[in-house]
Amino acid sequence: MFIAKKKIVKTITIIFLLFMILAVYQSNFVGRMMYPFPYKQTVEKYAAQYGTDPLLVIAVIREESRFITKSKSSKGAVGLMQLMPGTAKEVAVWLKEDYAKADLLDPETNIRYGTWYLASLSKEFSGNTVLTLAAYNAGIGRVQSWLDDWPKDPNAYRMEEIPITETREYVEKVYKSYEKYLALYATQRSGGRE
């Protein structure tokens, strides 16, 4: 009798654990741990202000800095969105701000400048995400030169056709993160329930 009760308790425990694992899986808990959305209010605020997708912005941040605010690259890019100082100076001019006072390691400033720049690239490339991300990584001039050699509609330009391996891999990584963020957070954005 004792062995039978022990088996029942063990079976109930296993069923309970399976139910809990299923509940965690269904709640996107694991996905949201791997693809968190820190600085959500700041990202959403500036994405709305500059007319770009907040989930694309957070995907860029994830791949650029892994959310490390004091991140600096060997090429000189800084902050969450890994802005080059020259690019940040241009953004400051467009925003009519004094670049000397801009702290690119400050998350708010970095996200604001980076989001403005991403939105301007998106407008430049008619909302084409592949070209926008390629320009964010390689520079607008390089992407324009690729398109000058492209005989077709620029919207037909695909990731596989990016001639610089580093940029192509960057676009692929950000795009994959973007798709994950869409799957995990799009219901919040559209006003749906989780």
Mind explaining what this structure looks like?
This protein is an all-alpha fold and 194 residues long. Helix content is 65%, strand content 0%. The protein is built from nine helices and no strands.
Question: What's the quaternary structure here?
Answer: single chain
Number of strands: 0
**Rg from Cα:** 22 Å
- Biggest sheet statistics: none
The arrangement of helices and strands along the chain is HHHHHHHHH
Helix content: 55-70%
Q: What features would you highlight for this structure?
A:
elongated; 194 residues; mainly alpha
Task: Give a brief rundown of this model.
The chain is mainly α and 194 residues long.
Provide the fold topology:
Layout: H1 2-26, H2 29-34, H3 40-50, H4 54-65, H5 85-94, H6 107-124, H7 129-138, H8 140-148, H9 165-189
